Amino acid sequence: MAGHSKWKNIQKRKNAQDAKKGKVFMHHAKEIYTAAKLGGGDPEMNASLRLAVDKAKADNMPNENIDRAIKKATGALDGASFEEITYEGYGPGGVAVIVNILTDNKNRTAAEIRHAFKKNNGNLGENGSVSFMFDRKGYIVITNEDGTIDEEEITLEAIEAGADDIVTEEGAYEIITAPENFNAVCEHLRESGYLLESSEITFIPQTYSSPSEDDEKNMLNLIEMLENNEDVQDIHHNLEESE
Hints:
By secondary structure, the chain is of the alpha+beta class.
């Protein structure tokens, strides 16, 4: 992870996305769905879900939208039959991509994902074609833009709680955990008074890819097309974005 910041990549695109109000609720719905799917539908027992719900409410997302996202994840949505699918492939310049889907129409979604890759000079592969390049980890971000959080103190707190690693970035700390320790680490940090900016179980690249300027532009277009698809729940990739 040293020298590479998942948080910086997220932040760049999130700032651009959230400027478009129409995408904000979709973004929150996906975060709520993912948290509920991985950790259960009770916010009191699921730190990631509680954080996702709090953020959604802060942006005035209606409660019915929040409830629908949770029910969708837990299989409690009446009259709906959803299927989970994972697509793997390479974006332009050989960037590895994993896309997690939840859809009620497999054929429609497959065509849309295939089109997004093809339009941006990427190609889909078989399951397992790129997932070996990622590690499944718990991932937590605590921002420190004002510089008031002591690095040594938060490092000791995180390690004591069961974290595997902590990475110091400009204005933020990125904390990495084993999936089974994720909730315990989140709770410990919360109880210690830290505000979690982001928390999720995700796939972290073992290595990063730095494609040409044109390939990076196409890769960012691919990511945007996928993020705009309401069936897409998560996108994981190993693109190292240029400054």
